[in-house]
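Support request from a user on the community tier.

User writes: "When I paste my structure tokens into the form, the page sometimes reloads and wipes my input. The last time it worked, I copied everything first. Here is what I submitted, just in case something in the input itself triggers the reload:"
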């Protein structure tokens, strides 16, 4: 019979210990992102908010080549990203900004739900993406890469099913306000304030 947990008290000669509370926010998260058939990308993000409905990660400064979707420059060297993760969902949403703080749009990224080991987080890319620019222009991205991944069995049948279900959910949500209302309080200004107040 498994002994009952007793909040760190001795019970019948067995001492159990309570699960330690999580570290206060914001805190730094080491995020390992696996891209099947490619290298593993490693990012450091600030965890700004964490509850059962929403997790907010912040990358203060993107370093890399400019990325554009259509005619819109989505992110540039020195720009910021605020990422919104929905525990259990097979996609997340990134809010992208230029170096001067101008918001460019929202990037929906299909991936496995995050697995966490303390402050080490892990997820796997599932190829399909979507972009909504700040002016409302929308496009699906990397559909050819997704089809190739399915054809080459870089993702499992179960993962493909999750992507397709997520795609239908996102497509339906795109018929109304986007991004979801739950993310809207976490603007770049608020995220910077949270980080600044606790630095």
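"...and here is what came back when it finally went through:"
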């Amino acid at each position: 019979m498994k002994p009952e947990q007793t909040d760190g008290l001795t019970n019948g000669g067995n001492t159990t210990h309570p699960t330690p509370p999580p570290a206060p926010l914001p805190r730094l998260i080491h995020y390992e992102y696996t891209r099947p058939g490619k290298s593993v990308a490693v990012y450091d993000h600030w965890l700004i908010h964490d509850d059962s409905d929403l997790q907010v990660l912040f990358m203060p400064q993107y370093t890399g080549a400019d990325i554009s979707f259509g005619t819109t420059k989505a992110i540039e060297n020195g720009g910021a990203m605020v990422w919104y993760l929905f525990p259990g969902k097979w996609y997340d949403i990134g809010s992208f900004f230029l170096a001067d703080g101008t918001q460019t749009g929202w990037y929906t990224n299909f991936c496995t739900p995050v697995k966490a080991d303390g402050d080490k987080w892990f997820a796997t890319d599932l190829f399909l993406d979507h972009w909504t620019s700040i002016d409302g222009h929308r496009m699906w991205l990397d559909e050819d890469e997704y089809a190739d991944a399915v054809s080459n069995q870089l993702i499992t049948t179960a993962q493909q099913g999750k992507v397709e279900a997520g795609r239908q959910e996102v497509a339906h949500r795109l018929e109304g306000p986007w991004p979801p209302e739950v993310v809207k309080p976490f603007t770049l200004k608020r995220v910077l304030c949270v980080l600044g107040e606790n630095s």
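Agent notes: The reload is a front-end session timeout and is unrelated to the input. The chain is about 20% helix and 40% strand. The first strand starts at residue 10 and ends at 11. Escalated to web team.
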